[in-house]
């Protein structure tokens, strides 16, 4: 269970100048208003806004966002009104809380893909401050993480909405980390059989893949270091959703998915990206047709990276992604990156510090 102090620590690490007085006040306010309320799990309700604020802190968002995270359910679930929030916390925060409350009242019907597309557009058009969406995504992520406590019908309904509305929005905003977790959590409820098959299969190979990740990761690190490139190397299992998409595309059973492991190299400069790529291709044989230069041609959501797949000595294919720290931040946080370090701009310079520790649920680094 996350504590107030844990979040404060997270924020201090990336924005020591943040207004912690304000944060503390919002915490006390939220705790008072939600007092006595419980979640379906039986836990105190306050855990939810705290977790939401924690997710927002993981995205390195500004204090306004975090305060809204703490207050986001107050207007909907307690007797507090908009005017009171404004009186205590100012117009900006009240306005964003209002946006989140309005979104929560939208009724989604997600029967058709076309309709889902319309809903996504409507939702994005409705908000005049993108932080409304960021808080809503964090809210949805925590609700998905705790979906077990709802009825099976409700689980499917919320998971469907997550897959069709919220994961694509996270994708469009370039927040890769949240997108993958939302997709994998939705899969767990929408296709439990496929999810558990994958889980079992990957689990049975876990020791093997852990060793593989360690071995190859070490070699990668040494090889680039030998060329004088300082790289942060990490390895992970790919997300369930992407593995499943591959199985469907190639019509193969899970046992035949071999390249479920991916490595990531975060290197200091653009030049190093291509340098590292050449080095990797000289060490391992590339899989034809798998090289993608998303640096020269970024994805529409701003994502940049070099992707390649190579084959190990033992014949196991694996993917390598190469990017600079700035590209890495954009890949993980997308549009949220623009709302980081807002206050005082003190941390701006820190945006070039690699942060490879942000491991999603399926990461093993
Ligand atoms: Mn909520």
Explain what you see:
By secondary structure, this protein is of the alpha+beta class. The chain is built from 16 helices and six strands. It has helices at about 5-15, 20-35, 45-60, 65-70, 75, 80-90, 90-105, 115-125, 130-145, 150-170, 175-190, 190-205, 205-225, 240-250, 270-285, 325-335, and strands spanning about 230-235, 260-265, 285, 290-295, 305-310, 315-325. Strands 1, 2, 3, 4, 5 and 6 form a six-stranded mixed β-sheet that branches. A hairpin with a 5-residue loop joins strand 5 (about 305-310) and strand 6 (about 315-325). The longest helix has 21 residues, at about 150-170.
The helix count comes to: 16
Bound molecules: manganese (II) ion
Please report the total strand number as a whole number.
Answer: 6
Catalogue the unreliable spans.
341-365
Class per helix and strand makeup: alpha+beta
Helical amount:
55-70%
- Work out the radius of gyration: 22 Å
């Amino acid at each position: 269970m996350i504590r107030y102090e844990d979040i404060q620590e997270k924020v201090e690490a990336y924005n020591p100048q943040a207004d912690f007085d304000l944060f503390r006040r919002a915490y006390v306010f939220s705790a008072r208003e939600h007092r006595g309320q419980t979640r379906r799990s039986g836990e105190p309700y306050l855990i939810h806004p705290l977790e939401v604020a924690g997710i927002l802190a993981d995205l390195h968002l500004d204090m306004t966002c975090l305060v809204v995270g703490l207050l986001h359910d107050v207007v909907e679930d307690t007797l507090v009104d908009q005017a009171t929030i404004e009186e205590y916390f100012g117009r900006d925060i009240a306005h964003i809380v209002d946006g989140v409350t309005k979104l929560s009242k939208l009724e989604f019907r997600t029967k058709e893909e076309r309709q889902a597309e319309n809903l996504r557009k409507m939702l994005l058009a409705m908000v005049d401050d993108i932080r409304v969406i960021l808080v809503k995504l964090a809210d949805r992520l925590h609700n998905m993480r705790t979906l077990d406590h709802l009825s099976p019908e409700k689980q499917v309904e919320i998971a469907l909405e997550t897959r069709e509305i919220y994961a694509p929005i996270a994708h469009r905003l370039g927040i890769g980390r949240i997108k993958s977790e939302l997709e994998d959590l939705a899969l767990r409820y929408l296709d439990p059989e496929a999810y558990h098959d994958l889980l079992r299969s990957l689990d049975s190979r876990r020791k093997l893949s852990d060793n593989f990740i360690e071995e190859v990761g070490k070699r990668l690190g040494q090889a680039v270091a030998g060329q004088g490139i300082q790289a942060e190397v990490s390895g992970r299992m790919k997300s369930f959703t992407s593995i499943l998409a591959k199985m469907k595309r190639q019509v193969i059973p899970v046992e035949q998915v071999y390249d479920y492991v991916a490595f990531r190299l975060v290197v200091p400069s653009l030049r190093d990206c291509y340098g590292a790529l050449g080095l990797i291709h000289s060490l391992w044989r590339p899989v034809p047709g798998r090289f993608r230069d998303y640096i020269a041609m970024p994805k529409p959501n701003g994502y940049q990276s070099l992707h390649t797949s190579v084959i190990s000595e033992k014949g196991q294919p694996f993917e390598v992604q190469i990017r600079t720290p700035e590209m890495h931040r954009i890949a993980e946080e997308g549009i949220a990156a623009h709302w980081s370090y807002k206050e005082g701009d003190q941390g701006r310079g820190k945006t070039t510090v690699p942060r490879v520790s942000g491991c999603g649920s399926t990461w093993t680094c």
